[in-house]
Amino acid sequence: MAIFSVYVVNKAGGLIYQLDHYAPRADTEKTFSFPLDLVLRPHDERVVVAFGQRDGIRVGHAVLAINGAEVNGRLTADGKDVLEFLGNPANYPVSIRFGRHRLSSNEKLMLASMFHSLFAIGSQLSPEIGSSGIEMLETDTFKLHCFQTLTGIKFVVLADPRQAGIDALLRKIYEIYSDFALKNPFYSLEMPIRCELFDQNLKLALEVAEKAGPFGPGS
Fold first, then answer.
1. Considering the entire predicted model, what is its pTM?
2. What CATH number does the domain located at 27-99 have?
3. Low-confidence residues of the chain: pLDDT under 50
4. Which of 19, 33, 158, 182 is most buried, by CB atoms within 10 Å?
5. Cβ atoms 17, 193 nearer than 8 A
6. Are 49 and 57 in contact (CB under 8 A)?
């Protein structure tokens, strides 16, 4: 069980804090001969698998490295187009590493804003008046948990579906935010959180949650 990441979103939908706590690695590296038995397509400035799955390589996985050198979006380490390089028989055999791409800072900002909008839509679609909005989204590989304060700050935790005690963790994060961000005389409301004590106590809370589950009295 694990806690993957934490996001703090202000009431306007801006990302003011993000921490990647644990990133499961599902990279797969294989040596291929020509022709490549996977269909690759450009997508969002990356080259991804569009068709064909084998040996842990799945549709949607991105090309992360070629012959041990990290790729830069759609370009190889030496600036060549990835699709053109892989389409040339002279470059084979070739070693390719596939896996989930790492989100950039801009992508994280965009996703936080999108979730803020989905949260508002969820509140409006609810048949009950005064709906709290989206509190949890579940997939087969992770759960997204959200706690919104009365002032509109959202605390979002992405965790393993089997991880227990997330509701208590969200409230613990709110407590840490109150103690080490709001009480910091140098912190401005709605602005990015840059506080070493906040970082330290948040990481400690995540470790405690992973090992012990729910927080006990006085934790």
1. 0.75
2. 2.30.42.40
3. 216-219
4. 158
5. yes
6. yes
